# Entry
Amino acid sequence: MVTQGNIRGGQDGMTLVELMVGAVVATTIIAAGYAVLTSSSKAMTTNEQTVETQQNVRVAMEFLYRDIRQAGFGMIGPVGNCATAIVPADHTPAGPDRGPDRISLVVPVGNPVGTATDPPWVLASNTSTGFSLLALPSALAVTNMVSEAGGSLTVPPAVISIGGAYTTTVTAAAGANLTVPVATATVAFKVNTPVYLLQCVTYQVIPPPDVAGLCSGRSPCLVRGVAGGMTAGVLDCTTVNSRCTSIADEIEDIQFAYGCDGCVSAVNGGIADGIIDTQPFTAAGFDQGDFVTNIAWGTAPLTADKIQLAQLWIVGRQRRADQGFGESNQQTAQGTALQVSDHLHSDGVFVAGDYAALTPPYTSTRRRLLTRTIELRNLRH
# Structure
């Protein structure tokens, strides 16, 4: 038989020291688990930001590569505000840049396949030699072309390309027909030949503050579209009536250098010969030093119509700085200033409009740099 005293004797409690030790152990385990979860969460956020930045840079490169590759599309004469197939706009032609370059290009807009509700932009019938009328599949195809041109194909006259082989202008548009100047007697095209609208588009980086709202709150961003006017002689997407939209967020810089054929008087008398010019200040043979930047491209023979190669740098930045192990964002300094072509980022010399003067400073976030050399394939001299 168990006595009452024996029952109480088997129910001894914990001492205060034992309770405190247990609490410390439990707190340590919880804190360690929280630290691991916090670290994993911030590492995942950092990886997501890195992937997003890399994706933004690649999207920007894909757009620019495609348009630079086909710039001109056999154009003859100016298209919109583009006097030449490629219109360079170095940020500071007289010296090192304090911001991103711009570029304007003549590119084709077309719809060669189409659908039942969006008819293709193709010839509905064969043309005869010396034609002056182009028939499209339906009036809707012409209406869609008018919309793409900004509301009119005749004011100013739109420039079109037939199959990339023949460039002409539109003098009238009615129903499914486009009227053009009388073609050369030897030129004729078959049914279903694509018809392209040539446009002068501009690529431009919009830094903060984004006054026009082109970046939808995610500046800096890269925008593309038909520029509405000129600022200091450069096509500008922020002017009134521009039709420019953001194509890549957090793009802080684009820089260009160009290889040209026939832009050096001492090389083949300044006449294009199918070989990229070697600049006088470099050794024989074409190399990196022969790419031209810091120039306005307005004085012969250094004119934009001589450009045959474009070297492009695109810099994307993370939207936020990487987080440390604390609860708030930690500023992680970049070891050295980033040099992109002739643009030195965050060089410590702050001037009006310089990226380095922005908050947060440009040394506080990761960047991704992508570069590519592009051959222009559709130029015509």
